[in-house]
Amino acid sequence: MENKKELRNWLDEYNLNHPLVIGGPCSAETEEQVVKIAHQLKDSDATVLRAGIWKPRTRPGNFEGVGALGLKWLQRAKEETGMKIATEVANPHHVELALEHGVDVLWIGARSTVSPFIVQDIAEACRGIDNPVLIKNPINPDLSLWLGAVERFYTCDVKNLGVIHRGFSTYEKTKYRNIPEWQIPIDLQNRFPDLPLILDPSHIAGRRDLIFDLSQTALDLNFDGLIVETHYDPDNAWSDAAQQITPETLVQHMKDLKIRKEIGVDEAYQRTLNELRAKIDVADNQLLDVLSKRMKISDEIGKAKAKQNVAILQSKRWNEILGKMILEGEEKGLSEEFMLRIYKAIHQESINHQKKVAKS
Ligand code: PEP
Ligand code: MN
Q1: What is the mean pLDDT of residues 352-356?
Q2: Which atom of ligand 1 is nearest to the CA of 27?
Q3: What is the average pLDDT across 186-195?
Q4: Element of type H or E holding 49
């Protein structure tokens, strides 16, 4: 698959003067719930209503969705509000039922994207359809696997495609439910600048207070839209309660987010600047992570040295590192003076860490 302008035709045809917004509950729970949320969203920027009908749960025993019955509720919401409707499909039977019930937009869940077999089956069931299919990233941070899924649909003649960034799973506990690893969608965007890219801040965050900032970062990075879990009673939602926001909050967020279109006087300049700044923020966070990981290793070295009663400062090793890093730095366009300064600071911090653990 190559990048082609046509990849974004479907989105252009939506003719929006703001980012695409897909709102609605994690899961369809009752007919009243689906229809009520649709009415609450219908006059907002959200033009597509989402609701999970079949819910892939990591562990069995959680709410697994209402099943095909919920499609009728989505259909009624569509008729009453004029919104487009979207749901997750995870096998060929889901595709058939969703299409029969007038579902406009299909999405592929993160747990499906990990499996080329499943993706292939779903893609074949979708052969030739015009409905947009949005492909969530796989749960593991693997750009090829994500792109591979997109290509499987493309080669099954599904040309209205998009991707959803929903973060990546880690064993480590972080403030996010799924870490954003922004570098991955940025790389994807560099390869396929015209493939619509949508952020799912809800599943990255796992908690509602992080949703706004994640959405702003995405818009600064030129994402095309947002898919946000929305429920009138988030705390009592049957699934993903902590991350859902009310329709009112979503409307407020859309007012408060700086959307590229509204940026003042010199629009092109501001747009570029915001995008580059968002990229710098991503790089800075990566730097911090790497530095903190490096110091954790220093702590381990400190412990090992203390056990052996060995001196913390080992000049020979330090000079070797410094010489090597200056040479490698030069190859990457970093001056000797800068490498010296930065490595002295890193070395000093590392010694401080080792001293601290040696004392404890
Ligand atoms: C969802 O959108 O409700 C969902 C299950 O998402 P994901 O596949 O990203 O976990
Ligand atoms: Mn969910």
Answers
A1: 89
A2: 3
A3: 94
A4: strand 46-50
> Is 203 a pocket residue for ligand 1 (Cβ < 6 Å)?
yes
Per DSSP, what are the bridge partners of residue 229?
A: 24
Rounded Cα distance between 72 and 65, Å, is: 14
- Please name which of 131, 141, 195, 134 lies closest in space to residue 167, comparing C-alpha atoms: 141
DSSP string, 25-38: -SB---HHHHHHHH
* Across 139-143, 198-202, 319-323, least confident range: 319-323
Instruction: Judge if the beta carbon of residue 52 lies within 6 A of ligand 1.
Output: yes
Asked if 65 and 52 count as a contact pair (C-beta separation under 8 A), the reply is yes
All structural domains of the chain: 10-256 (3.20.20.70), 267-359 (1.20.59.10)
Of 118, 108, 130, which Cα lies nearest the Cα of 6? Answer: 130
Best of 29, 53, 88 to mutate for ligand 1, by most ligand atoms within 8 A of CB? 88
Confidence of residue 78 (pLDDT cuts 50, 70, 90): very high
The token pair at 49 is 């209503």
Beta strands in 184-305 (DSSP E): 197-199, 225-229
Alpha carbon distance 71, 101 (integer Å)? 6
Amino acid identity of 260? R
CB 196 within 8 A of CB 20: yes
Residues 133, 141: Cα–Cα separation, whole Å: 21
Q: Where are the beta strands (DSSP E) in the chain?
A: 20-24, 46-50, 84-88, 105-108, 133-136, 161-165, 197-199, 225-229
- Averaged pLDDT, 27-50: 98
pLDDT at 275 over 90: no
Mean per-residue pLDDT, 245-254: 98
* Backbone φ/ψ region at 65: left (φ over 0), alpha (ψ -120 to 50), beta: left
Instruction: Give me the pLDDT at residue 40, please.
Output: 98
Q: Which residues share a beta bridge with 23?
A: 49, 228
Strands (E) across 239-337 are located at none
Smallest-distance ligand from the CA of 87: 1
More confident residue, 358 or 131: 131
With the most atoms of ligand 1 within 8 angstroms of its CB, the residue from 115, 133, 136 to mutate is: 136
